[in-house]
Amino acid sequence: MVATRAGVRRVDDDGLALWGFGDRAVDVLFDGRRVWSFWLERDTRTSLPGARSIEWPAALRKFLDGRSRLTVTEHVSGRVLYDQERAFGTADTRIEMVGRSGAPISLDKSNRISPTFDTRSPADVLPLLTAISTVLDAIASAGIDAFLAYGTLLGAIREQKFLGHDSDADLAYVSAHSHPVDVVRESFRLQRAVQERGFHTYRYSGAAFRIDVKEGDGVVRGLDVFAGFIDDGVLYVMGEIAADFRRDWVYPVRTCTLEGQSFPAPAVPERWLEASYGPSWAVPDPAFQFTTSDRTVRQLSGWFRGTSTNRAAWERAYSGARGKLPTAKPSALARKAASYLSSGGTVIDLGAGRGADSLWLARQGLSVRAYDYVPTAAQAVQQTALDEELDLDVRMVNLNEWRTVLAEGARMARVDGPRVMIARHTADATNRFGRQALARFASMSLRGGGRLFLDVWTGPGRTPDRLKPVPIDEVARELSAQGARILVTRERPARAGSQRSSRGRLVAQWD
Amino acid sequence: MGLKDAAGRLKPKLGLAFGRGDADLARRVEALEADVLELRRHNVRLAEIADVVQELLVPLASRDQARIDEAIEKFSRSL
């Protein structure tokens, strides 16, 4: 379709109404600073031909209370479509789009709030550049030549700087292996090499991990490391690329310039960028969305994903409470554990969350090992335990990753004395794979007389967010398969008239 | 041989498309995709097991408690 001029018909508290034919990226600026971009056709709703509307993204909406000079421009041509002083909501102050740390934020291409690079000073990003060099060096020490990739490579090749609308930095490498098992093992090894340099790392999948880098003003920036491999002439790179490719388009690496420093790039970066972003990679697009084929998604997901299911949702759920001591009273399960261990012993609190039960149990004089997918949720409890000199250790276990289950299971297997595990709404917080891992972890930790007390929503009816009911018999079967002797299974229906799910209680023992 | 005859000969060979219909074929493709996914998922798990064995087996075999503790702690930190 022929592209026409475009314009803005209306701006209000709900969103923007525009007109025009022909897709193009559009930027929205508040007081002269870009905070959001979208595509005129792809991202809008249309009622009459050419008449389009788009709502404010949820992440932006909460800031819309006050005054601002609102500007809407076409990203590539720079043509101004709208430029007026506007009032939103009821406040009479200027709208300030800043994050918790006070740093300016905008929306990245996934419409998530982040301190995008266009809000950062050269001094702010210097630690990130230093971290990129250190991480490249660590990976090189493990025998792999990594290089800039995705948006970071695009920024370096096209503009010699970070893309303004980007929010993280990306590295990649192409493995000498061609089998996914070897690629995953190599990625594990590289994470260790990076972690040994003192960085905090975080694994996304079998073929990608992140390094958390603190920028000049304390903003934490993600530096991602993606594995790639070539099999039968096809390059696969986590998490979006599958393309016909030649190894000599990757190695030996060449150099490129980013923010005034030299970094490695693939041998033919244009080929790499085309494989990443398609033939129009050279045209700036702040609202770029991958159109990865279903087959590629199936391949990459099948080989590498499934090791951090729902983790981001749990992190978001706890992010607001970080650093605050929980005030909840001890659960019935915690009281049962304390009463069972009246002469002392160790409680393994699996799925400890913010750690209210763990802290209470430690205060009863018990040794407590508090495990969670998101151990930062119990930071305040860990600090209090240190202050009060309690025997409480908060640790990470990821039921979707066998390695953590096996390593922590081996650790718990060596605990002397009576042991109890409590798993309060843990079986219903994970998937079948995770429940089988729970059973394995319990089996390793409790062999020789240890006891498990478990609570689970069994349905039908409503459950709290992120929890899915599981029949109590299914949980019992999964535990029995790992050698448990089931002592009690009990189901308590919800009160009459309540929409809530039934609850199940299970007690098991490993002899 | 006319077109009709050729189609008649092909029909049994392409029974799915001509006979039982698209729904059956779609079901079989769906099942096949699930089977492939199941097989692909072994990759990451096999890699996990190999990693645990490689990183922990040698220290565990040493029977030196301090070395075992250190190996598990170091391994857990890197996850």
Give the CATH architecture of the largest domain in chain A: 3-Layer(aba) Sandwich
* Largest beta-sheet characterization of chain B: none
Oligomer: heterodimer
Please, what is the average pLDDT of chain B? 82
SSE topology:
The complex is a heterodimer of chains A (511) and B (79).
Chain A: E1 7-11, E2 15-19, E3 25-30, E4 33-39, E5 45-46, E6 51-55, H1 58-61, E7 66-74, E8 80-88, E9 106-107, E10 113-114, H2 122-141, E11 147-148, H3 150-159, E12 169-175, H4 180-195, E13 200-205, E14 208-214, E15 220-231, E16 234-237, E17 241-244, E18 254-258, E19 261-265, H5 269-277, H6 294-304, H7 311-319, H8 332-340, E20 346-350, H9 356-363, E21 367-372, H10 379-387, E22 392-396, H11 402-413, E23 419-424, H12 432-446, E24 451-457, H13 472-480, E25 485-492, E26 503-509
Parallel strand pairs in A: 12-15, 20-21, 20-23, 21-22, 23-24
Antiparallel strand pairs in A: 1-2, 2-6, 3-4, 3-7, 5-6, 7-8, 9-10, 11-12, 13-14, 14-15, 15-16, 16-17, 18-19, 24-26, 25-26
Chain B: H1 3-13, H2 15-20, H3 22-40, H4 42-61, H5 65-77
Helix pairs in contact in B: 4-5
Sum this structure up briefly.
The complex is a heterodimer of chains A (511) and B (79). Chain A is of the alpha+beta class and 511 residues long.
Task: Describe it.
The complex is a heterodimer of chains A (511) and B (79). Chain A has helices at 58-61, 122-141, 150-159, 180-195, 269-277, 294-304, 311-319, 332-340, 356-363, 379-387, 402-413, 432-446, 472-480, and strands spanning 7-11, 15-19, 25-30, 33-39, 45-46, 51-55, 66-74, 80-88, 106-107, 113-114, 147-148, 169-175, 200-205, 208-214, 220-231, 234-237, 241-244, 254-258, 261-265, 346-350, 367-372, 392-396, 419-424, 451-457, 485-492, 503-509. Chain A contains 13 helices and 26 strands. Chain A folds into three domains: 7-97, Immunoglobulin-like; 118-305, 2-Layer Sandwich (Beta Polymerase, domain 2), CATH 3.30.460; 312-509, Vaccinia Virus protein VP39 (Rossmann fold, 3-Layer(aba) Sandwich). In chain A, 44% of the residues are buried. Chain A has 511 residues and is of the alpha+beta class. Chain B is mostly helical and 79 residues long. Helix content of chain B is 87%, strand content 0%. Chain B contains five helices and no strands. In chain B, helix 4 (42-61) runs antiparallel to helix 5 (65-77). The radius of gyration of chain B is 27 Å and the shape is rod-shaped. Chain B starts with a helix and ends with a helix. The mean pLDDT of chain B is 82. The A-B interface holds A 179-182, 184-185, 188, 191-192, 195-196, 201, 203, 205-206, 298-299, 301-307, 395-396, 398, 401-404, 406-408, 410-411 and B 33, 36-37, 39-41, 43-52, 56, 60, 72, 75-79.
